[in-house]
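ok so for the tutorial part 2 we go from a plain amino acid sequence to predicted structure tokens. step 1 is just haveing the sequence, like this:
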Amino acid sequence: MQEILLACIFLFVKHPYDVGDRVDIDTKSYTVAKMALLSTNFKRTDGKFVWIGHNILATKVIENSKYPILFAGSH
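step 2 — the prediction. this is what the tokens look like for a chain of 75 residues:
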């Protein structure tokens, strides 16, 4: 239950990205491909896809080229 609450806060309150945005997470670049309740599907620069859980993303610094703000899990 706590994971679902954290995912909702991450998606709807922090809302660090939208589908199609280019983001940098841990010095790696991705394009947001699909968002689900508990995870996001990213396309890497090599064309491969990776799913990352929102419980993990909530602890990362996410730099979105669309927004000039850094999102961090501690804020």
